[in-house]
Amino acid sequence: MNIFRLAGDLTHLASVLVLLLKIHTIKSCAGISLKTQELYAIVFATRYLDLFTTYISLYNTLMKLIFLGSSFSIVWYIRKHKIVRRSYDKDQDTFRHYFIVLPCFVLALIIHEKFTVREVLWAFSLYLEAVAILPQLVLLQRTRNIDNLTGQYVFLLGAYRALYILNWIYRYFTEPHFVHWITWISGLVQTLLYADFFYYYFQSMKNNGKLQLPA
Amino acid sequence: ASRDDVKDEL
Fold first, then answer.
1. Residue A63 is assigned to a structural domain of this protein
2. Where exactly are the transmembrane stretches of this chain (chain A) (predicted)?
3. Please, what is the average pLDDT of chain A?
């Protein structure tokens, strides 16, 4: 494992911890999109099916369990926790799941590496992960005033994707036959979706001010 | 290329 991969994984882990910290300590999920969290739960559930069939490393198994566990517990908190669920911006978080899930599934049926359940679901999880942040970005755009923890959560998620791209560039030059179009293109699309957010995030850091997106 | 080459990634 190279340094970009490790940094990417740790940033991903940090993003989830920031989110859980916010929900658990402040007992608030204001500004957090349940839709995005549910999409991530689907992403991890479909991608980590191999948890029971293939053993890669202790690190790999632990991280998979953490991402599965955290995504499902965040969904549980927002839907079921008697205090947290009151802070959920239901009327603002209007993105429809099937607008995202259905096209990703159709695309996975068309573009995959092998036509097996595992490979199609894996491709589906990559396509879905690429666009799962959309409901969250729309919600940020609508609420405009973003609290620090929510801003950091989205920033860390974007940083994780950017670091994965550096990891693929590194692997391409150090490992023979490392060519993965499905992973690369969906990863690139996913990172590009953060470009606008990154721009305003760095602007607000430069001005030492609060993160605010334009209307 | 197949999924197995990147199965170590999350």
1. yes
2. 55-78, 98-115, 121-140, 152-170, 182-202
3. 93
